[in-house]
Fold this protein.
Amino acid sequence: MITYSGTRIEPTTKFNGEFIGVPGLTDIALGLGRMPRFAGQTRRWWPVLLHALVCVEIARNRGLSMRVQFFALMHDAHEAVTADVPSFFKPLELKQQ
């Protein structure tokens, strides 16, 4: 796949010893902002990005470290490429993320 910024996503492919296929923060934010949670089966629009922002807000309100807040923000970053797959249908490879 080609991301918004033009990054080509090819997991595990190497060129000149460097990995390719890593989306940038803009690609992650844009992808998560367009990706619905729960396969779109909510009464209101609920994108994965909003879910991530709520998680980081909870971490901040609990006084957790900036590191934990960052992890809360980025815990679903891979879904910018894999999409939000409901847990019942998620293959083992995605459950390990």
Notes: The chain has a mean pLDDT of 87.
